[in-house]
């Protein structure tokens, strides 16, 4: 098929590269002419290989992480295909197309897979390209080699890791007239490093682009401000070689003359022409940022490829409407959960924010506090940073609890485009002030006169009363639709408790900060950190200890432990028939009555709870019970931590000057008795969430019965208003198309890495790197002091993996669903987190060193490596690689 004949729906025939070249040709862009050898030809070719189906069976069984296996299988498949002669019909058609386009020209022969250059996966560089091909025989040989390159080891692994089946991918071949350029390179219509949509970047080198993409030269870098056309940055590279075609076919690598190596490849006019070309191509693709390959021959620019930039994180939506740049903070990072959130989960959180209201109608018109990006939620913090008093307060809090966020925001906040953002609307200010006016009085009372040893009992009572009020308000309604409406109405005001809880957390944090400053550079600095061990009243710690109790009950009974691996949710009572079973089942029932609404990624209402599927919990219990700990060892360990903390408290008071002892004693008590209630607001919310959840599932069951939903889990891919509409009238609309599309978006979003901070232009500020970072080390936030060495265990799913005693837990994040793993952890490394996020608090309470917020630790570190975790300096070092 010639490029001009390729239609928009021809992806399955010509692959991603071929389809894009066809679209660019039809749109009138300067594309060198060419044709595609279609996937029908590929299938006709591989059908001539009698062992091909057997090889595909072996590839389908390959582990996505088996690099050696992919290399061996790939080589075998390629050898088998290259032994197959091309079918006569293919020889005739390719030869005819070649002659029609011009035998006197040289051609680039390029692979174009059906899963390639797509919006969700680029597959760039996975298959082969051959340059400066001349003559019929060489052209046919290059086509055949391209067909075989669908099975390079890199292509096999890429498909396996991205969920593309080997049987469902086919390959077309692009045959394109060669341009002999003076210069060539890559153009990104958005900055591929920072994500900034307003910055266009160009890499340029001499000759063919192979020298650049192969890493043989350091290309020139041109950064252009798309709004003004100004050159923001020019970095001239050292271009020592260039690859050029030779007359007889093939290419040669030549040395670049000394005087041209450090000279600019592109002048201002060429940069401007490329920027204009990039903007026009992006506009043609509906504003989707593009990755272009270009060549410059004389004064003529040629476009030889365009594909979507798949590495960019989606922009927050809806974007700002005031013409300025806004700053967004990841809600998932703040909650230590970076998985995507179901559509209904996101919808309900938008009903909760902003805090301070009692009904949805109180949200000021035009206020967008939470926005979507990549199936996650982001908080618009621009209005807070726009006012000097709230800006100072926010930076003080962030530097104390999330210094990484503070450091990143500091690089952005003073920009004129951000400061131009509209100030908070008066209605929004009244909402915030109306909620928080009592906080200073409560804080002063806690710091100076309140009885502190009753704070846990007060918090427990407050949570129980609010949950009871919530339940009564929902259950008083007589219809399912009315209950759904009442549940959301109650949820919007659930955080009216924050003015009561916030002073307790702040008093503990302020007291801790004061003590750190007072005892800095003294022998008692470590005693200050020890105060956070075994905190009083943390409901998550209570939950963890009770999981340990369940493990104690199962440990003496091998048959019971084995049964925990396979028991299904509806079969728990069958455990009573086993030795030790009755006591275990009763204790588990009591545990689920108290904590059954919790689970992994629990801030998403669409994720299973332990009460839904205790198997998520039983895996952890079984892993803990497999170790030979003495009964009650976990409680004795916690009691020892509490004793150490109390002893440290006594030493701090004794070390203070006589006139300061009262205030030091008061500060010590604030730390011990107030910081522990940090988990109560979330515990309250998760219990209220469960009341909403039960009503949503009841409505889902009715819709399944009515034939409007295929399964009850589909309900999480509706918005709450859509559910209300269907609950009132099941025939109102067919929800299936929406559910299908949203589920596809959600599944795609699982592979995205959400940024901690992002602007409305897509810019992700770089994380500052410590100056004293040892070579090869990973930097993060030291969240729990101390140094430990041990074997790394990378855990991505706490329901499927257990930790052995003394291992270092390396995790993407932790929330209460991960807490049982902490019993055996000697240290913690987390991709995300701050000083007050879940993993940090639990690590301090357990007295284990922790470094959080390392960014990509689960990718850079491997299970079995020996690590040194320095929780004081925030550094993780690899001491030894994993044993074979």
UniProtKB/TrEMBL annotation:
Pyruvate phosphate dikinase AMP/ATP-binding domain segment(s): 13-311
Top-level taxon of origin: Bacteria
Keyword rRNA-binding: no
Keyword annotations of the record: ATP-binding, Nucleotide-binding
InterPro entries, alphabetized: ATP_grasp_subdomain_1, PEP-util_enz_mobile_dom, PEP_Utilizing_Enz, Phosphohistidine_dom_sf, PPDK_AMP/ATP-bd
Record-annotated PEP-utilising enzyme mobile domain positions: 804-874
SUPFAM superfamilies assigned to the protein according to its UniProt record, in alphabetical order: Glutathione synthetase ATP-binding domain-like, Phosphohistidine domain
Gene Ontology molecular-function annotations: ATP binding; kinase activity
Protein name: Phosphoenolpyruvate synthase
Species this protein is from: Nannocystis pusilla
